[in-house]
Amino acid sequence: MKERVIAVFDIGKTNKKIILFNHQLNVIHEAEQKFPEIKDDDGFECDDIELIEKWIKSTIRKLIHSDKYDLTDINFTTYGATIVCLDEDGKRVTPAYNYLKPLDERIPESIYKRHGGRDEFCRRTASPALGMLNSGMQLLWLKKEKPELFSKIQHVLHFPQYLSYTITGKIFSEHTSIGCHTALWDFDNMAYHQWVNNLELKLPEPAPVESYTNVDIEGKRIKVGIGIHDSSSSLAPYFSESKGKFILLSTGTWCINMNPFNADKLTTEQLDRDCLCYMSINRLPVKSSRLFLGHMHETAARNIANHFDKPEDYFKHVKFDMNLSDLLKKKFNDKKLFFKDDSLSREFRERIDMYQFKNFEIAYHQLMNELGQLTIESIHLILPEKNDISNIYITGGFSKNKHFLNLISDNFPAKKVFTSEISNASALGAALVLSGLKPEVNLGLKKVAEN
């Protein structure tokens, strides 16, 4: 007898995955695919969306005709800040432009000036000024720089909804994609911002993220979801199983701290310090702060290794020494030696004197003290004045760094700090919201030991 499965296409910037879940939401198959980037019409790198589409459709056909699996549901989760524009016939008008593509600052400035200035506009849309990462600004850029293309646009879809559209032919928007630093959504009024009307485009009203379409594909009826933004999707399993209010630290190249239980509006100060809002599956703002943690760690650890003539990955062999960490805090009185001393500065000092340290181990402990402090400051930005958060969950690469875990635990003694290991959390969230299943989800929680 075939096993009933839910297929989730998890489309990351680097890796594209197909993940199959059974109806107990356990992963039973996973395959990864990498696609070479192509050039857009300006010669800038972008995803080969046509090749991705062909892979998705081919994979679905194989699953439908599988002797092993009975495909019942399909959903999509992708990175944000990417839009796809369609003409009146539903055909793509433009490439899927890369959100790292440079944007002339004068283009968003024209909108800021008309709507209360940059600070007020960014506060209202919960979107720090991030250039093309504000996907709404990609539309403004098209209107000003490529008017012939813009004139053909009839529909605008974010990436998850576009992939769903290629299977269903249905036009959708949903809150997690439209509310993700797009500069399109007015968080004060919970509607599209006024400036969007001036684009003279019909953007679809966001539908609930659990919406779906029943589609007949090669003789089989399949439930197809409308897609979900990956950051919001990764939170979904914690809503299903979490006991008490929590914040989630998703660590890696970026450390994204997400608090789904802070309803306070973003302040200008928070925006200036790299805070933003995502939207939860419950259509509520998720106040978040960002820190380029993994990149900063990699850069500094490499410099320390070069100075002490060690391999670049030598830090992996350094055992955490709590006494040394405390000694360095007292010796330098919490002064930063790697980073500038300005409040919440994330910039490295122009000159770092490595001769202050006798060996790699001491230098690395000092680095981790400083990175931990920067993370703690970033977390405080998303905690409300009435701080009733019970749990802190830490996922990703730094959940294995004992020094990092110790610093977080020490600075939040009233909270329970856990590491959490969920394989394919974003894909699991996409499966959860579509299926309506409510099995017990194993969050892989391990309490961080108290000192």
Question: What does it look like?
Answer:
- This protein has 451 residues and is an alpha/beta fold.
- The chain folds into two domains: 221 residues, 2-Layer Sandwich (Nucleotidyltransferase, domain 5), CATH 3.30.420; 225 residues, 2-Layer Sandwich (Nucleotidyltransferase, domain 5).
- Helix content is 34%, strand content 23%.
- It is built from 15 helices and 22 strands.
- The strands form six sheets. Strands 1, 2, 3, 6, 13, 14 and 15 form a seven-stranded mixed beta sheet that branches. A seven-stranded mixed beta sheet has the order 18-19-17-16-20-21-22. It has a two-stranded antiparallel sheet with strand order 4-5.
- Helix 9 crosses helix 15.
- The longest helix is centred in the C-terminal third of the chain and has 21 residues.
- It starts with a strand and ends with a strand.
- The relative contact order is 0.12.
SSE topology sketch:
Elements lengths: L2 E9 L4 E6 L5 E7 L4 E2 L5 E2 L2 H16 L4 E10 L4 E4 L19 H9 L2 H9 L9 H11 L1 H4 L4 E4 H10 L4 E2 H4 L6 E2 L4 E2 L1 H4 L8 E2 L4 E6 L2 E6 L2 E2 H12 L4 E6 L3 E5 L8 H5 L2 E5 L5 E7 L1 H15 L14 H11 L27 H21 L10 E6 L5 H10 L4 E5 L4 H11 L9 E3 L4
Parallel strand pairs: 1-6, 6-14, 6-15, 9-12, 16-20, 20-21
Antiparallel strand pairs: 1-2, 2-3, 4-5, 7-8, 10-11, 13-14, 16-17, 17-19, 18-19, 21-22
Helix pairs in contact: 2-3, 9-15, 11-13, 12-13, 13-14
